[in-house]
Fold this protein.
Amino acid sequence: MKAGENSSATSSEPKSKGPKQDGASPKQAEDSSRAFGEGGDTSDDFRQRMAATGHTLQQDITALSQTLNDAAQDVSTALREQVKSRPYATLGVAAGIGYILGGGLTMRVGALLLGTGGRMVTNMLLREVLAAQRPQ
């Protein structure tokens, strides 16, 4: 730079105040300013909104946690009843699941068993539905 030259005079880009808009409409710029606490929003308003949002989120998470806890207890109760009423069948199912998860089956055998089991379950469910619909 030569002596006496002003660096701002040689700059080809105009200086702008505030955040760069990149072709944003005035409405988008206004919304962006509000979202970040600029413009008419005070930092206290922003803090209050964030506190309210945090409180709502905490309530939702607590409700979800309670619902999941209730569901886990229901599953636990159902499994305990199955173990008491059918201990050998439950043990067989647990051993089969462990064998499958351990990689004891090939894809072809697994697909065959899954298809056969699916047909058996479907047949059993259809029988129960039809029996429930029969007039007595």
Notes: The radius of gyration is 33 Å. The chain has a mean pLDDT of 77. The chain has two domains: 41-104, 105-136.
